[in-house]
């Protein structure tokens, strides 16, 4: 179900895969599933493929509305208050930017509720059914249903291809509202961040080009410090203004922090009941204040201790296992004279590192599973911090080696150019070629299997149905921690590593900002094509910020202040005596001033625009007024129902 300008249209948004073998053995179960889906108001279309049959499912607006009402999905109303959805009062709820009543995340939740909510009511021949068991989950466990996956909406997909993926003339301008409506808040926020970052790169790119190409004569020694100060201030302002834009996006998409008496604290779907406190603590809440406080504090510090232990294990593993390997690569790179061999060595190094990092990622996931985190997003953030530590070491330790040990700026500049070029080529191949190769291989296997079943070796077998083509496409999954993250993990990691590279070594290679700007313009279009053409439609996620990545970018800005100060010291202290002369002292003072400015800008520039803050305060005030009036009515009703002696007793109690 999608809408445009208030008009609703029924679209098949979910598909289930049924092997033909399962249809022969358990056809009655599949027929029962289809019947139950139709009884619940859904539209089911059966499509026969080469080796499987597909059940395409669509839900009209009324069916989705009833499911949302059963799930008690809270939605913003025109009064500025978020209330549980009711189908009868649907006109009071604010619609999405594309005109539909529900977001893609809400629709997918409703589909899951409708499909997985079908319970067993019959006995099977091959295995015993349990009364009240979810039919689809049982069919999945028995192999009757392979999987359920979201489908692309062809109309909207083609529209996004024209206005976004293939529209190169717009450079960094993107239809963010359409991206949010189609893919969800998480992907919409990421592309908004990527577009804003690329736009802001224009200033340091032009400044870096001037510093790199123009000879300032006697003032040349001031060019790099001025460029260094400008880039740090630029980065700090960019991150602060991104917070403002993110807040504006959430306000425009009606994604709010909600506080209500019936739900405690809730943000983006996380409620009090979902917090990972033991059930006995929740059960005894408020009985004995002192014991309750002590129990919660003990549990809180136990969770911190577990996370701290895992972080120490990861850090020690990086130092003991990865550091020697990185230093060995940096040393070999320094002694090799041939540029071609250096490029080959870097490519081999990147392949080995990919395997080692995936191994480290698997270990990190196992450690995270032993931690106590509040939600899946918190677990995902913990994974991001741990895996970024691995990538930080492998990406930058070799460069630090060239800076501190050899102090060879020509070699350092060469390393940066090679890393930027090779990493860009590597990520482009991974993003574009790998999904297409997987898709082609799956189609080839299906065709070959069909030919073997038919016993014919000639003739070309065509895949006619769109749903089967969607099934053969790879999922938008992360290379590490698939159960916690999706493909945004790899895209965000690539962007963070690029930012660290150009910022931490800005004084060594100012032209890197221009290369990054060109790379990001291409990245926007290639990522869009990847999501719309070569991959399945991603599962929606509730998170509406870039999460842990923002803290990582803040960390990289602080690191860049330190590393560029060291670069300037190495550059101006040619003799290597490290004396605190006026020039070196000025660099140290400049470092401390920049650190103060970086943290000071976070106070000077508000994180929310004034209109967002005013709207939020207005909504909270209206919610409080409504809850107070409702509470007064309920109290008045209770007092009216009391007998006269009970009313006198209540008045005496209030006077006391």
UniProtKB/TrEMBL annotation:
Pfam families assigned to the protein according to its UniProt record, in alphabetical order: Anoctamin
Main location: membrane
Membrane topology reported for the UniProt record: Multi-pass membrane protein
GO molecular function (one): chloride channel activity
Subcellular localization(s) per the UniProt record: Membrane
Membrane-spanning ranges: 187-210, 222-242, 312-334, 340-357, 383-404, 416-437, 502-522, 542-571
UniProt-recorded name of the protein: Anoctamin transmembrane domain-containing protein
Lineage start: Eukaryota, Viridiplantae, Streptophyta, Embryophyta, Tracheophyta
